[in-house]
Amino acid sequence: MSEISWRIVDRRPLLPVLILSPDVNDLRTVDAVALVDTGATASAVTRDLAERLALPVIGKRLVASAHGDQHVDRYIFRIGIRLPREGEMPAFPFVFEAVEGFRIRSGFAFDALLGMDVLSQCDLTISGGQTGILRFG
């Protein structure tokens, strides 16, 4: 099982991730910062990230948020996590299976949302509100 730990800043569990196309033959990645959100049933990306990977819109989805209910674009994408390097060898990221996610607004301290569609495959620990540990694989 792999593990990554990170610092939680200002009580926001923000985790560096990679966003990838759902096509396993497409190795392009986009670096992103994801909010770890156990209250979200699905993961999400901003329109900018979706456009950078040329993700097609596959329809709309009704999403309930603090700003009210709204219909937003849906995308299929993969989420990857860089593994810590061991010695001189480069580490390949761990990449989860493709998920059907949705679009979130830009302008926050994050550009992706890591929801329960991915988190349910992991063990998540938050220690003292300052450190997050995610075990997966």
UniProtKB/TrEMBL annotation:
Q: Which superkingdom is the protein from? A: Bacteria
Source organism of this protein record: Sphingomonas natans
One of the protein's GO biological processes: proteolysis
For this UniProt record, the keywords arranged alphabetically read as follows:
Hydrolase, Protease
Protein's recorded name: Aspartyl protease family protein
Say if the entry is tagged with keyword Heme: no
Q: Which GO terms describe its molecular function?
A: peptidase activity
Q: InterPro entries of this UniProt entry?
A: Aspartic_peptidase_AS, Peptidase_aspartic_dom_sf
- Would the keyword Protease be found if you checked this record's keyword annotation? yes
**Which one Pfam family would you cite for this protein?**
Asp_protease_2
